[in-house]
Design brief:
Layout (H helix, E strand, L loop, with lengths): L1 H23 L3 H36 L4 H14 L6 H15 L2 H10 L1 H4 L3 H17 L3 H15 L12 H11 L3 H9 L8 H17 L3 H15 L3 H4 L2
Helix pairs in contact: 1-2, 2-3, 3-4, 4-5, 4-7, 5-7, 7-8, 8-9, 9-10, 10-11, 11-12
Length: about 240
């Protein structure tokens, strides 16, 4: 909040300065140049702030409210207003999450493949690429491709931490690995090590779903069903929240 206030103060001071240059200039040409350039810069800056506001609401709708319909509507508004395609890369990442959350796993994998060069451009993007694949292959029950994906993820674990942001928990990934090895107690142990306070509602929904199915495999039906109910409430319209 403080950063936003500071930025708006800077924008206001810039606008006042441009006004001063225009009103203090004697030549009409100078007035037009200062006014035109200043107006153009301010217009671009204000457009960016407007788009960023839409983007932040879009991310909040998906990750906190878990409202797919609202997230899609905001994405379409962002794309319509983004005249310079400044949020194009952000939309590529968002669409990978959205397709997963909609349950369109094949389409999600196709989207990841189509934009493979983009996702391989940074380690963080590559992490998102494999992490999203992991859930797609898990839900599609493609054990062979899931195993390959998990190997690729674990290779990233050896990369120096300062080169990667803490996008996802390694305990989650290890838990997924144990789950598909049918080592359900080990999976639960890993999931219990995840710092839940750092998760948004979307992320927590996937963790709860995985934990619930571990418990169900261990015949702890009552607790498993309870956690699935919790995931459904938290995950709202996400496809994973509707699964039983």
């Amino acid at each position: 909040m403080g950063k936003k206030v500071f930025l708006w103060i800077v924008y206001l001071l810039f606008a006042v300065y441009i006004y001063y240059l225009v009103t203090s200039s004697q030549e009409l040409g100078a007035k037009l140049i200062f006014g035109g350039l200043g107006g153009l810069v301010l217009s671009i800056v204000l457009l960016f702030e407007y788009l960023k506001n839409i983007y932040e609401k879009m991310i909040y709708a998906l990750t906190v409210e878990c409202d797919l319909e609202k997230a899609i509507a905001l994405k379409e508004l962002l794309q319509k207003k983004d005249l310079f395609n400044g949020f194009k890369q952000s939309i590529i990442i968002f669409d990978s999450l959205l397709l997963l959350d909609e349950g369109n796993y094949e389409c999600c994998l196709a989207h990841l493949h189509k934009n493979q060069s983009f996702f391989r451009s940074t380690l963080d993007y590559l992490f998102i690429y494999y992490h999203t694949q992991m859930y797609c292959y898990s839900f599609l029950k493609d054990e062979e491709k899931l195993a390959t994906c998990l190997k690729s993820l674990f290779k990233l674990k050896n990369v120096k931490k300062k080169q990667m942001n803490g996008l996802f928990s390694w305990h989650e990934i290890a838990g997924m690995n144990y789950f598909h090895q049918n080592r359900n107690k080990k999976c639960l142990s890993e999931l219990d090590l995840i710092d839940k306070k750092r998760l948004n509602n979307r992320e927590l929904t996937y963790i709860l779903y995985l934990k619930a199915h571990c418990l169900l495999k261990l015949n702890e039906t009552s607790e498993g069903r309870r956690i699935l109910k919790e995931a459904k409430s938290l995950g709202n319209t996400l496809a994973v929240a509707q699964m039983s």
